[in-house]
Amino acid sequence: MTAVEPNATSLVGQRPCPKCARVNPAGAERCAHCHCHLLVYCKHCGEAVFRGESLCPGCREPLRHHPLADSDEMVQKARAELARVHRRMRWVQLALFLGAVLGAALVVIKLANTDFDRLKPVPRDQMNPVEKAKDDVDRQVFEGRKP
Ligand SMILES: [Zn+2]
Ligand SMILES: [Zn+2]
């Protein structure tokens, strides 16, 4: 009678493939039929664990080695980080918007003041020769339009 020595991989045993349900030899890393990964390695103790187990038989830590679960977790984390950045961005945007509104208001006030000054008629005795000449032309045009 030969006693079967338990080896490290016997923990995995002969288990059906989680994808195609066909049985693979104990310790097989990949399914011989569909080539999907059969083993995952515990992040905490490095133990090879059959894919699909929820707890590591070595250290009893919950396993999250499923590639899809991993990517889901990463996506969740990325989304959370993005949301945090967006929240911060909203404040920055609000500050920038208020700054822009304030700046625009100042520009409008300044322009309005400038235009107002320009519209003020300059007394003829305060005009420089160029302004006087322009004024003369304006007057001639105005007089010429008179019926
Ligand atoms: Zn398979
Ligand atoms: Zn472990």
- Radius of gyration, taken over Cα atoms and rounded to an integer in Å: 41 Å
Percent helix among the residues? Answer: 40-55%
Query: Largest beta sheet: what is the strand line-up?
Result: 1-2
Strand content: under 5%
Low-confidence stretches: 1-12
Order of helices and strands: EEHH
How many extended strands? 2
Number of domains: 2
Structure notes:
- By secondary structure, the chain is mostly helical.
- 48% of the residues lie in helices and 4% in strands.
- It has helices spanning 67-119, 129-145; strands at 39-41, 48-50.
- It has a two-stranded antiparallel sheet.
- It is rod-shaped, with a radius of gyration of 41 Å.
- 7% of the residues are buried.
- The model is unreliable at 1-12 (pLDDT under 50).
- Residues 17, 19-20, 22, 31, 33-34, 36 line the site of one zinc ion (ZN).
